[in-house]
Amino acid sequence: MQTIWLSGAEWLAVLRIGLGLWWLESWRHKDKKTWFTGGGIRWAAGIAEKHRWTFVRSGFDTVVKPRPRMMAYLVAYAELALGLGLVVGFLTPIALACGLVLNLIYLVLMIHDWGEQGQNLMMALISATGLFGMCWQVWSLDASIGLFL
Question: Which residues fall within 8 angstroms of residue 24, CB to CB, at 6 or more apart?
Fold first, then answer.
């Protein structure tokens, strides 16, 4: 594979690090006080209750709605963990797979919002590319300690 400036593996690492920074920005821009007191989950509940697919409404009502505080912490700290893991390249394939699932969940919930769809589709595409391109081969803790060779 010929590339300009960096090797193919290095370009994949750039994508991985950029995706990690994107997840960190998702964490950073949250109003933590509002988010952790249920604001984010109330917002999502409003979207879920009007969703055209019944499995989304019933799934949200079964899994998320009864546990708003726990789910708020789970979502926020998952975004933080994904961001840190991808930036430093630690447990990278696990982070990429979990991020892909989280983006697909966001995509399904926000199916009516074209702006959210674009962001989540792009992040999911980068996750899949990084996963199948094994983007942890360079510039990562995984490569440094010999994980996932």
Answer: 79, 80, 83, 84, 87
Give pairs for 59-68: CB < 8 Å, separation 24+. Answer: 60/109, 65/41, 68/38, 68/41, 68/42
- Residue pair 136/96 in contact (Cβ under 8 Å)? The answer is no
Of 131, 127, 130, 134, which Cα lies nearest the Cα of 106?
127
Dump the DSSP string for the chain. ---SSS-HHHHHHHHHHHHHHHHHHHHHTS-HHHHHTTHHHHHHHHHHHT-S-HHHHHHIIIIITT-HHHHHHHHHHHHHHHHHHHHHTSSHHHHHHHHHHHHHHHHHHTTT-HHHHHHHHHHHHHHHHHHHTTTTSSSSHHHHHTTT-
Spatial distance between the Cα atoms of 23 and 85, rounded to a whole number of angstroms: 10
pLDDT in tens, 66-121: 999 999 999 999 999 999 999 999 999 999 999 999 999 999 998 877 667 889 99
